Amino acid sequence: MSTPKGNRMIWKLTPDIIKKSADELMSKTKAAYNGVGALSPDAVTYNNVVKVLADNDCEYEVKRNNLTFLQLVSPEKELRDASVEIDKKLSEFDVEMSMRQDVYDALVAFEKKIPSEESTESRRYVERMIKIGRRNGLHLSTEKQQMIKEIKKRMSDLCIDFSKNLNEENTVLTFTVEELVGLPVDFLKSLEKNEDGKLKVTLKYPHYFPCMKKVRNPETRKKLETAFNSRYPRCLHPNTSILEELVELRSQNANILGFPTHADFILEMRMAKDPKNVKTFLVDLAQKLRPLQSQEVKVFLNYKQEECEKYGYEFDGKINWWDLRYYMTIAEECQYEVDSNLLKEYFPIEVVTVGLLNIYQELLNLKFTQVKDAEVWHPEVTLYGVEDKESSNLLGYFYLDLHPREGKFGHAACFGLQPGCLQSDGTRQISVAAMLANFTKSTKDRPALLSHDEVKTYFHEFGHVMHEICSQAEFSLFRGTNVEVDFLEAPSQMLENWCWEKEPLRRMSKHYKTGEPIPDDLLEKLIKSRIANAGMFNLRKILLGMFDQTIHTNSKADTAKLFSELSEKYLGFTSTEGTNMPASFGHLAAGYDAQFYGYLWSEVFCMDMFYTRFKKEGIMSPKVGGDYRRCILQPGASKVRHFKRCTLVYQTLMFSKTQVKMHAPVHKI
Question: What pLDDT is attached to residue 35?
Fold first, then answer.
């Protein structure tokens, strides 16, 4: 196995090595903090405060990520469990280090004597570290600091447990072929059988979503949706309790720090600034989408009544959670004549991957090279090196881990593993990132075929990978995706537009049997279908955002009851009995608390970037791609000038009375 230059990730680990490495890491970090904390106010300098802390950040993040990432990806349960255990231990250690009064005092003392020639990013680092210190209560009494410390440690453990429960969930349901009627024959053939000859269906994405979109039998869909939104026994009760305790703890922490709610505490550091702005944004957008949603629901009900009469199912006169994706799919296929099963045949994953990588290389002036025989955590994982095409400088590496397996992270996401930043010797540490997904696997009869939604997911998450790799911040604190969370999704959402344009679609598609390109008529229908179900699609996002904001502007929450009430308010139907979708809403325990609105908020900025530059000057324009890389990806979180621009765009677009007219024809708002 090769060791790529500059990639410090090591995957041949054992539980004992993980434990020993974590102990060594904590010991080294504590020594660095002790040195800074021992300084007198007169003795503080850039080199003995800022540089020591920044160098430690750079080293610590690499080794910590290496140890804790395994809980998401390792095929060995023993390693996943060891990684979870060490994550909890390191998280407690993180809390201890983040609340070092002596280190905070050294930073405050240094801020008063920052030389005028100090770099802007250095100033920003010091200001941000002091701000974080105050948000940890280091300006408060020792008694209050101790309360905050205990709360933070408990919250950290709860979040890790919440995610572990989701990752380890392995429910399997069984159905007869008749119960799965509507699914393609090839999909049915790919399913395993139990001893009674029934077909096994898991709750992993490649099984669940095709079933919810295509299975005709409403009872089958109801069983699947009930199971998916409860994930019993690993998630429903344990994660409901965890989430509701987190709500209380987050509220308590905010109150101690002088904030009325957890949302106020979080949003102080975000573009939105306060819950009132977020609520206004979501409510205003929901009102504009209501007429569109009403029309869509009427269409869904007409299709449902026709199907019930045709196949002898009982018509209850309403849309339920288990009906939603099914009738959205029917509406899209009937109104826009898009055959989703036929369309998938043009997106074999190998073709999509090659096309996607070529598009990103051309757009951002990069060169990707697969690293053969690289050490990885699973045989299906691939590793690529990234160079700047002009200078041939190595910028970093990315891993692709694209298919589901037991115990693996169940969503799609990018993880920064090694931050791009300056090292202690003044040289630059390159970035390393990993993209995890759960796309359909190949079978003996056919290659892995992606739905168009999966192609968009691929494009989106790889956009985050590029944000990590192309970042050139000095400090790991400001690398890549460490931008404000309500801007975080904008760069990747912007790149989803390439999945709705003819040239990119042709470049990453061909029929898996014939090699033929997507026919022009099918391509035209696909592009026109972009506005299908836009009302319901976006009101579901608003529902999730409002749920997130509501629980985090209160001190307690009955999450199942609240979610059902908000579901009825925004979608028109309550939750399915026996479910609690928030118990499997991983974002709420993974850093998006009080920030899920950011997915919609950042879409305004993504569309502004796309339409003001790429659409006008060429979606494959190397000049615009270069500007995008230089102005958006490269600074990471080290500069704020683009956030000011986005705030202006938000004010002029999102609250415009013509906003829906401006964007509905081209994007699901």
Answer: 98
Give me the amino acid identity at 311: Y
Tell me if residue 505 falls in helix, strand or coil: helix
Q: Please give the pLDDT value at position 640.
A: 63
Please state, rounded to an integer, the average pLDDT across all residues of the chain.
Answer: 94
The answer, as to whether pTM is greater than 0.90, is: yes
Q: In this structure, what DSSP letter does residue 428 have?
A: E
Check pLDDT > 60 for residue 540. yes
All structural domains of the chain with their residue ranges: 15-98+100-135, 170-228, 349-534+598-663
Task: Say how many C-beta atoms besides its own lie within 10 A of residue 93's C-beta.
Answer: 18
Q: Per the structure block, which two tokens stand in for 75? A: 């095929």
- Angle, helices 101-111 vs 120-135, to 10°: value is 140
Question: How many whole angstroms separate alpha carbon 168 and alpha carbon 409?
Answer: 8
Rounded-to-integer distance, Cα 70 and Cα 87, Å: 10
Active site residue 489: no
Q: Hey, what amino acid is at 43?
A: A
568: tokens are: 């009825």
Give residues with Cβ within 8 angstroms of 484, minimum separation 6. 269, 270, 271, 637, 643
Bridge partners of residue 2, in order along the sequence: 374
Tokens of 644: 């000011």
The tokens describing 527, both together, are 């592009």
- Structure token digits, residue 258: 């002088």
**Active-site residue identified among 345, 461, 489, 496:** 461
Q: Amino acid letter at 517?
A: P
Q: Does domain 349-534+598-663 have CATH number 3.40.390.10?
A: yes
Does residue 191 carry a pLDDT above 70?
yes
The CATH architecture to which 15-98+100-135 belongs is Up-down Bundle (1.20)
The CB density around residue 612, as the number of other CB atoms within 10 Å, is: 12
